[in-house]
Amino acid sequence: MKGLPDKRQLLEQVKPHRESWDAGFRPSDLEPVGQGEESVWDYPRPPILQLAPIELTVRFEETFIARSSRALELKETAGAPCPYFPPDDVQRDWLIPNGRLSVCEWKGVAVEFDLAVPDGPTLHGAAWMYPDPFDDLPEGYAEIAGWIAFYPAKVACFAGEERVRPQPGGLYGGWVTDRIKGPLKGSPGTGHW
């Protein structure tokens, strides 16, 4: 994809940030975890990809934007799971690249999209994807190359019948459900997590 920074140079730039992570840190106010629940503090760093345990959907009003039982959830310490949808399970014609890029120290460069639903508004910055993720780690981020993720603060996202809530702070795209226990990064005072 044109306009992306050199992948190898970028990888060298993010390595110090990767190495600065304190794997022993845990906040003092961990939420208790019951049967069928997960603590975000049990997720690893670097993050892992796992098949979502339930069908996931993204809608604008009654219009389906994405629906999949094959989505992969990215799970990273302190963050809510962030699902990536296979391109064939997404209304890709409605996604418009908006020129914004962001960088993850684990996955590489993400391209952001606006969502233009026919006969509806344009939702700015509603989705993103990694066109060419880093492939230097065994976690297999290349598997989500071209897969689409959605911000639940911008569109209605569902895990089964449960409408998910956005991860705090507006930066992260994690999908917060009742089965996820924190505290979650993104709130004030969590920048070092």
TrEMBL record:
InterPro entries: DUF427, DUF427_sf. This is DUF427 domain-containing protein. Residues 57-152 form the DUF427 domain. It holds the Pfam family NTP_transf_9. Residues 1-38 are annotated as: Disordered. Residues 1-21 have a biased composition (Basic and acidic residues).
